[in-house]
Amino acid sequence: MKLQSFSVENYKIFKENFTLNINESSIVILTGRNNTGKSTLLEAINWFFKKETKSNTIPIDCYTDEGKEIIFRGKFGFGEESFTFTKKYSNGSTPKFFDDQGIEIKASHQLRANLDVILSNDPFYITPAMSIDDLNSQVQNIYSEATKNKIQEIENATFEDEDVSEEHKLKKEYEELKLSIPKFVTSLKKTLDESLRLVSGQVSVALQRLFSNDSISLKISGGESGGISSSEIVKSMKSNLFINQDERSDMHLSNQGTGLQRMTLIYLIQNMIDNNLIGNRDDKMLLIDEPEAFLHPEAVRALSDSLYQIGREMPLIISTHSPILINLEERHTSIQIFRVGQSDAIELYKSDTEKFDDDDFKNLKILNYVDSYVNEFFFADNILIVEGDTEYIAFNQLVKMNKDNLHIIRAKGKSTVATLMKILNQFQTKYTVLHDSDNNPDFSISTLRAQLTNCKSIFANSINEDVNIYSSVHTFEVALGLGSISGSNKTRKIYEIMNDDSVDTEISLAKEKIKSVYNVILCNNEERTLPDGFHKIETIEDYERLFNPMIEAMVEQA
């Protein structure tokens, strides 16, 4: 059983029907601004699985419209089949489940068994503000899942008679226990029935006298037992978690800090999966609301690795504001990244390793080491890729000054620009690229041809009209009129330009050029004119016009 899509309606922020299509990805990452419904969506999924009573259900203030029902609808895959179940809440009554035809699913319904399988696998749900009861409930949920898996493993195991392993011994004890329970109940019933026979006779006499009817008699029948079920064993086992730290020993997890509580649960799940105690199947989910909350940055990075490891074995849905948790260099786990809004969830990215080669993965690793916030583009509306530090510093200064909604990614090289474009092409949004052409007249013919090839590889990834590419000739600094500047002096020079209000002609002209390029890129407005030294690239021929005259002149001279 696997959740394929989930809809919510009339619950908190979701007034209208909102649907999240999960497809086949193991990890789903929900992004979006505050108060768009990320946490509410996880909460709604958890409510779908809850066993509720009239007195313990969704509060009235969670109904967007008190006159309407709250509706949660989940589509679940069972092998090659899929079934849709709808849970409806009416104010003041216990919720009910319905099939996709709107028929209530009662005990006799043909899909009741499927629904029971789903509800028996309620998700692990971890939030930033878990109460002590919530914490204890999740601890018990994790332990119960491990117990259930172990019992199933014991039941399915086969051994030779001469096997003396502990596992074989445990299986024998389990089989003996299943047989001994009915024997015990039978003996107990026999003893108890003898005692109750006297009581039933006395009650019969009293009833005959009261109703003047000698034919009335009472017969007390004791219970029967066919054995003990695995679910009964699971219910009987309780678990607690204690933390030993410094001079304090055996302190209950509920008395620890919030960050330690949440990380303990997450690492507990991860390591139980690693040891084949839970997971390795599709019928149990992990829901985590803002896993980065209350953690230091280094802990968030470590957490990212753990989440991806969990996602290989168990469906995982998280909501986050942290770009650090998104790891695009991960090969083994498919991920879906959504931006959640009040009416829909836009799929920003779905990983597909076939689209990335070994060089792409190497570029992503390097990029993550250089800039841990590169993945902020999953949280931004407007995106600009630049090649180097100089333009990154200059444009970021203008973003801060103008308070523009623009996220700038520093690619650190043309090959990484192409890799980032492959990723961003899977977005449903626009983005812009600014890179150096590197058509330096001092380069050799072979170097110029190599740079032309690099430029063309960038253009090859501009697969739709929402991508705009601009190129500086031959570097950003030269295009600004500053000439060639050594690497160690570039950042100092650009800082001076952006923060110096002197009338120095070179500095003021460079600053005006930077502002002009920035405004063209930000607006992508055809009415604005690029300053000298910058070109908009619309065809491969635009690159060839920058390189071929130099190359041809060098060939003639040779």
UniProtKB/TrEMBL annotation:
SMART domains: AAA. GO terms for molecular function: endonuclease activity. The keyword DNA-binding does not apply. Keywords: Endonuclease, Hydrolase, Nuclease. It holds the Pfam family AAA_21. CDD domains: ABC_ATPase (cd00267), TOPRIM_OLD (cd01026). Residues 24-344 form the AAA+ ATPase domain. The keyword Phosphoprotein does not apply. This is ATP-dependent endonuclease.
